[in-house]
Specification:
alpha/beta, six-stranded mixed sheet, 31 helices
């Protein structure tokens, strides 16, 4: 008879140590879902009975998943929280089970080897001792704030009591995870032991704990910090400062960080059960906000994007040991750095030594900055850069698995490069073009092996922007697509599969948005007012400032391509021509909408004069409606054409690729919150007032007439 796998096993060894082994069936990681929590509750009841008889003498929490302790709670179950009371009750139930663990009358040791996040960290906090392996994959954190939540299984209460208020605030408010070494320095981890022989080391710690021979590292606080954290006045100063910093960073748009501060402030001196009740109530309140709902949805969309390919297609991905990057500009150097930072050997090629030197310096500088910020260990910066090999020839290209082409944005040049490199590549090697606007299908027609050609569109700056668009041509093979997705995952990017249409997805929608800023200028709005309106909405920068970053020459080229493809609704506004004729290219020549000669950026006087004759007041609401509703409308055109498979791909791509405010959930989620019929009616009104480019897309009309959902499209 085959034994049914269970998510949590209990084994007691010859030393009378109980090993609670978390090992969720059919999953790469352990998640604290309701089934695992019920199993934990049953095992704790069993342990209570056994301990009453004299053994086990200690309990170890152990993971059966290599490289992972517990990766957090089940986000799908978080999405199902019905209301604040339901959230409070679920939090309280998790707290009750962890308190049951905490009250076991023997030493409890959390053995952390690999990823320990969210509920996993909260579970470890309920133990007496936390021992971590020195594996680079060991990361410990509380990332709940990134989902619009607070730690709700006791983490908001226990962490500041263990490591101090300031360090707890840093962990909880940023959501960043710590290495084993940093966690040890914080006092979150009691010991760091070698990965090799980890189980034996844990057994020794358990026996020492029974004998009272394990020393606890006290967090090293300065005299100033002890005064701040140990006095009422000092704490008021700390919490006031934390609140001020959060408001400055979020402008109050994200409730969870503020709620976390309040919970820690209110509970520090309370008995733990009283404190946990306050935490549970706060969790219920933040879990049902629109912000949390949107952030949870985006998280799930990102997870779904990583599984966009069917398993049988994903299995065809080729191994990626060496990558080549053609073109050593800013983009090429950034891609090379990204590959090296993720331990992939990379060849960076250009046709000129000066250009190659610039690309290599850019890659080196990015790696150095990553070392300074702690993204990679400072000692590894040199080792990573040693993975980047600059060249002016195709030497060793016969060992390359993927070529990423990032040369000048002209089709004949790219086709020539493709023909050249294909002659020296292995037959299976994938050619991925980083084009932002050219037809990948047209490019592939120059290939001897068109099935190996795909688009792999990175966003600038490469090391920061989390999105890549993967473009499938008419002839791209499943193996090539799977390899491109595999490379994106290795590079830590979220990939969205996009059809080969002009502008793909993000640049197409962005073109409509930026073009409307030009029409607003022509209608009398001012540069500062346009940018202020969109920044207040939550965009990382206004459209005029973004056009300066892109460059007027590039924006003008894209606008012409969009008009050629989509007709009058994408016809360029005259504003860019006006500025280009004034010799302005944007930030690249220091002359755009803004001046860049000093530390202060301000609207250039010549620009103000160029549009002064048309100046009239345009209300903030009109600016937002015109720029963003035209973007939403274009998204519905793109969806109806099959540019992406789901509405969720639009929202995910625009958040990750343009910085559309995550708390709003993406453009379609934002439009749905306004009301689909209201959006359609406002577009009709704008069409009457401002032109046919605002005419509602047929797909939007259909959803509005049916009373349907934009996000379910």
């Amino acid at each position: 008879m085959v034994e049914t796998p269970v998510p949590l096993r209990l084994e007691i060894d010859s030393n009378k140590i109980a090993w609670l082994i978390f090992d969720t069936p059919d999953s790469r990681v352990n998640l604290l879902d309701s089934g695992l929590m019920r199993s934990l509750n049953r095992r704790l009841a069993e342990l209570e009975s056994r301990i009453a008889t004299g053994y086990p003498i200690a309990v170890v929490l152990w993971s059966g998943k290599p490289g992972t302790f517990i990766a957090g709670a089940d986000v799908d179950e978080i999405a199902e929280i019905e209301d604040a009371e339901d959230g409070r009750a679920k939090s309280a139930e998790g707290q009750r089970i962890f308190r049951r663990l905490e009250r076991l009358g023997v030493p409890k040791i959390a053995a952390i080897d690999g990823v320990c996040l969210g509920g996993g960290t909260e579970l470890a906090l309920a133990c007496d001792w936390r021992v971590a392996s020195d594996s680079p994959s060991t990361r410990i954190g509380l990332p709940e704030v990134r989902l619009g939540l607070i730690p709700g299984f006791g983490g908001s209460v226990r962490l500041p009591r263990l490591i101090g208020i300031q360090r707890a605030l840093t962990m909880i408010l940023t959501g960043r995870s710590l290495s084993a070494t940093t966690a040890h320095r914080y006092g979150l981890v009691d010991q760091v032991v070698p990965r090799e022989g980890f189980r034996a080391a844990i057994a020794t710690v358990a026996l020492d704990a029974v004998l009272g021979q394990v020393e606890r590292l006290q967090p090293g606080l300065s005299t100033r910090d002890r005064l701040l954290e140990g006095t009422g006045l000092g704490r008021r100063f700390l919490f006031r400062g934390a609140r001020k910093r959060v408001l400055a960073a979020t402008e109050g748009r994200y409730p969870a960080p503020l709620a976390a501060i309040d919970v820690i402030r209110e509970t520090m001196d309370l008995r733990i059960d009283e404190a946990l009740a306050i935490e549970a109530k706060a969790l219920g309140q933040v879990a049902t906000t629109h912000v949390s709902r949107n952030l949870v949805r985006l998280f799930r969309l990102g997870r779904a994007a990583r599984k966009a390919l069917a398993p049988e297609i994903a299995a065809q991905a080729g191994a990626i040991e060496r990558v080549a990057v053609l073109g050593a500009g800013v983009m090429g150097g950034g891609i090379a750095e990204l590959a090296a930072a993720n331990d992939i050997s990379v060849i960076l090629k250009d046709i000129e030594q000066d250009a190659l030197d610039v690309g290599l310096r850019h890659a080196s500088e990015l790696l150095r900055k990553a070392g300074k910020r702690g993204i990679i260990a400072p000692a590894e910066v040199g080792l990573k850069f040693a993975l980047v090999h600059g060249t002016l020839t195709y030497e060793k290209f016969d060992e390359v698995d993927v070529v990423v082409e990032a040369v000048v944005e002209r089709l004949p040049v790219k086709q020539q490069v493709l023909r050249e490199v294909e002659k020296v590549l292995p037959p299976r090697a994938v050619f991925a073009t980083n084009t932002s606007s050219l037809s990948v299908t047209e490019l592939a027609r120059a290939a001897a092996r068109p099935e190996n050609v795909v688009g792999l569109h990175f966003f600038n700056p490469v090391h920061r922007m989390p999105l890549v668009e993967i473009i499938r041509t008419e002839s791209s093979s499943e193996a090539a697509l799977a390899t491109a997705f595999g490379l994106a995952e290795r590079l830590g990017k979220t990939a969205v599969l996009v059809a080969d249409r002009p502008g793909f997805l993000v640049n197409r929608l962005l073109a409509a948005y930026l073009n409307e800023a030009g029409y607003l200028l022509a209608d009398g709005a001012d540069v500062a007012g346009i940018d202020r309106a969109l920044k207040e909405f939550g965009m990382p920068m206004g459209p005029c400032r973004l056009l300066d970053e892109i460059g007027f020459d590039i924006a003008g080229h894209v606008a012409k391509e969009m008009t050629r493809a989509f007709g009058d609704r994408m016809r360029p506004s005259p504003a860019l021509d006006t500025l280009t004729h004034l010799g302005r290219l944007g930030k690249k020549n220091g002359r755009g909408f803004y001046t860049y000669s000093g530390r202060e950026e301000r609207v250039d006087r010549e620009v103000s004069r160029a549009f002064a004759s048309r100046r009239r007041g345009v209300k903030t609401a009109e600016i937002v409606d015109r720029c963003l509703l035209i973007l939403v409308n274009e998204a519905m055109y793109a969806l109806s054409e099959g540019v992406v498979a789901r509405a969720g791909d639009v929202d995910l791509a625009m958040v990750l690729g343009t910085g559309f405010p995550p708390y709003r959930g993406g453009p379609l989620a934002w439009a749905e919150a306004l009301g689909v019929r209201s959006v359609r009616d406002r577009l009709r009104e704008l069409s009457d007032l401002r032109g046919e480019r605002f005419s509602p897309a047929p797909a939007l009309d259909r959803v509005a007439d049916a009373g349907g959902s934009l996000t379910a499209a």
